[in-house]
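Could someone model iron/sulfur cluster with this protein?
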Amino acid sequence: MLSEVERRFRTNLLEWGQKNRREYPWRELNRTLYEVFVAEFFLTQTPAGNVAAVYPGFLKQFPTLDVIAEATEDELVEVVEPLGFQNMRAAALKQIASTHDHLPTEPASLMALPRVGQYVANATLCFARGDRLPVLDRNVERVYRRVFRDRWPETEADQLTFTQRLVPDEARAYNLALLDFGALVCQSEPLCKQCFANEYCAYFIESESYG
Ligand code: SF4
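Reply:
Sure, complex below.
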C-alpha cells in the first residue's frame, strides 16, 4: 500500500521520465541481456560518456560470452583500458565467460558472479527484461532520502524493501527515470525550484521553512 506522497512521486516521476529520458546505446530497446549487462558492468564507477565511447567497439569485438571465453585476458584489457580498472574488469569478464554459456536471470545468481553487486544485477534484469526490481545506486538513494526523509530506512536491505514497493509494472521506465532524475534535477546541488516534487519533498519543505 502506497502513501499519497509515494503515489504522487511515482506518477510524477514516470511523467517526467517520458519527456526527459537520456539516450544511450545500451538503452535501445531489444538489447540482449548480455548487452545490457556489459553496459551496467562498465558503468560501475565510470561516467556514462566514457562507457559510450567504448561500448560499441567492445560489443563488436566481443558480441557474446562465448567470444570472451575464447579471447585472451590481454585482448580484453586492451579494449576496456579507457574505462579504468581494466585488469579487474577483464579478469571478471573472462571468469564469467569461462563458467557460463548464458547469464543467469535471477538476481541472486547474477550477484554471485565476480564483481557483480545488487545494483548491476537488478539494473541488468530490469532494463533488459523489464523485471520489477528496485534499482538503487548512490544517486537514487539520495533522491529517495530527500523526498521521504524520516521514512527512508537506514539499512540497505530495508531500503530495497522500501523501494521495491514503489516500482510499478512499468519498471524499466520508472527506474530509468529515477536514474535520469538523480543526474539532471535532484543532483548534489538540487534544482528544487524546477522540480515536480517540491510540493511534497521533505528536504525542500524543510529547507524552505528554515528560510
Ligand atoms: S524538491 Fe529538490 S530535493 Fe526534493 S526531489 Fe526535487 S530536486 Fe530533489
